Automatic annotation (TrEMBL):
Presence of keyword Electron transport: no
Keywords on record: Magnesium, Metal-binding, Transferase
NCBIfam families: PRK14830.1 (NF011405), uppS (TIGR00055)
Species whose genome carries this gene: Halobacillus mangrovi
Protein name according to UniProt: Isoprenyl transferase
Residues that hold Mg(2+) according to the record: D35, E222
Lineage: Bacteria, Bacillati, Bacillota, Bacilli, Bacillales
Segments passing through the bilayer: none
Quaternary state and interactors: Homodimer.
HAMAP family assigned: ISPT (MF_01139)
EC number(s) from the headed UniProt entry: 2.5.1.-
Length: 255
């Protein structure tokens, strides 16, 4: 019998087997590798970009739900530093997506008190992408609800190499003693410096790898994988991931 999951703590649900999600102990920071758009489309005889378009409506659903139940930070891997290798028409489409997304969805984000942020090498994105995202950042900067953090042109190795360069520069200028370099200092040079570390990483589409996502930050996160392609992901699966997370035992190397 398929199990249905309660979608929000207030909403009535019809399931005879509620998940028992504890809304007082949610992971504070959930990171998602939204994968499988292309295969979803291919299975339907559609072009890959149709999968990305469908994936965008899932982003809306998941953001809305994360905000409703009280997740603090949601980091979504939208475009990696390696995704430039894709055909130009696909890259162009992916760079248009934030524009379309924010055009239709920014008012709701504002209403929901969501704060938009980004991580990644932002300055090299096309002007129209930067403009739309900057407007969203600006217009939501005083919100203190869910932090919706888009990883755009993000690569963890690039991020860490840059951190090393910054630190080396400070040593070179005599501002910093190599003895003072520690984990906190290194973290403070990453894009994520103002965010708590992810508690839970979700990856859709059956792939079980990080693909250069938050290599440092995920050191002690719980990983949750599903075979489901991103366009078929929904609130119920999101809650299932949170539920499974709550039934894990995090030990951080202790006993
Ligand atoms: C994830 O879906 C979206 C992005 C990487 C932007 P893919 O486009 O990687 O879909 P698959 O993995 O080829 O099916
Ligand atoms: C990771 O997915 C990047 C995003 C979801 C944005 P990819 O589809 O690019 O990763 P690989 O190529 O399967 O490792
Ligand atoms: Mg993929």
């Amino acid at each position: 019998m398929p199990i249905k999951f309660p979608f929000t703590k207030n909403k009535k649900h019809t399931s005879s087997q509620p998940l028992g999600l504890d809304f007082n102990h949610l992971p504070e920071h959930v990171a998602i590798i939204m994968d499988g758009n292309g295969r979803w489309a291919k299975n339907r005889g559609m072009p890959r970009i149709a999968g990305h378009k469908e994936g965008m409506s899932v982003v809306k659903k998941v953001v809305r739900h994360a905000s409703d139940i009280g997740v603090k930070v949601l980091t979504l891997y939208a475009f990696s530093t390696e995704n430039w290798k894709r055909p130009k028409n696909e890259v162009d489409f992916l760079m248009k997506l934030p524009v379309d997304f924010l055009n239709t969805y920014l008012p709701e984000l504002i209403e929901k008190n969501v704060q938009v942020q980004t991580i990644g090498d932002f300055g090299v994105l096309p002007q129209h992408t930067q403009k739309a995202v900057n407007e969203a950042i600006e217009r939501t900067k005083d919100n203190d609800g869910l932090i919706l953090n888009f990883a755009l042109n993000y690569g963890s190795r690039f991020e860490m190499v840059n951190a090393v360069k910054q630190i080396a520069l400070r040593v070179n200028q005599g501002e910093l003693n190599p003895e003072e370099i520690n984990e906190d200092l290194f973290s403070s040079e990453l894009y994520t410096k103002d965010l708590i570390e992810p508690d839970l990483l979700i990856r859709t589409s059956g792939e079980q790898r990080l693909s250069n996502f938050l290599l440092w930050q995920l050191a002690y996160a719980e990983f949750w994988f599903t075979e489901v392609y991103w366009p078929d992901f929904d609130e119920g699966l999101f809650e299932k991931a949170l539920y499974d997370y709550q039934n894990r035992k995090r030990r951080y190397g202790g006993v």
